[in-house]
Amino acid sequence: MAVYTTDHSASVLQTHGWRTVSNSASYLLPHIKPDMNILDIGCGPGSITIDMAKHVPTGHVTGVEYVADPLPAARDLATSQGISNITFQEGDIHALPFGDEEFDIVHVHQVLQHIADPVAALSEMKRVCKRGGIVAARESAGMSWYPENEGISKWKEVTEVMGRGKGGNPNPGSRIHVWAMRAGFDSSMIERSAGCWCFSSPEERAYWGGSMEERARSSGFAKGAVDEGYASEADLELIAAGWRRYVEDEEGWFGMLHGEILCRK
């Protein structure tokens, strides 16, 4: 069951659309070969998926999302870039619509934290991965910022409480290798690493902080937080104002640590 705390509104897709293989899956890049068949689960607007397709010119990439909302835009983006070795479709990570051992790489990015049973999901990813293939996952593990900011602190509090309240697992990057072991991967076959994002330049602050401000004003996160009792309208205004202060502060810095795993089948 998906327990996503937001939706696919423009502000959400803005942050997701920035993601590429190089800035969000560089740990996987050395293992991608030109003829591979890759499954990207939780593809959203397709930016990572499309970038993967560019790295497998004689292979194919399938992007899967649990709802159809972002898929037309993903298809349009692929077409606009002349990418034809790619397919987008709906699918549930807990019951993938594929046969056993179909893919060389099965990849998720910031997905396991938004579902109720990540071990079952990893087991299903393992099922559709070829013998000798790779199951790859990257999930946030922690974040920090400067200077102190009451609005961002409130955002972190609300998102974590809301995520747990809906059955998710906020910021699980430090333990995704444990989930993989419970899903049947041998510990010796799991490569563990960490990566990070940093948003500090004026352009980076405008991109990250601006989109987060907009999420607090109009997105599924904002509506759900109020409707389900996780935050008040005043809380959301505090959050939005906090992100605006971060954008405008030349000393502003925001960093996010991610846990990464490469699981060999």
Automatic annotation (TrEMBL):
Family annotation (CDD domains): AdoMet_MTases (cd02440)
Gene Ontology molecular function terms on file: methyltransferase activity
Pfam families: Methyltransf_31 (PF13847)
Methyltransferase domain sequence ranges: 33-157
SUPFAM superfamilies: S-adenosyl-L-methionine-dependent methyltransferases
Protein name: Methyltransferase domain-containing protein
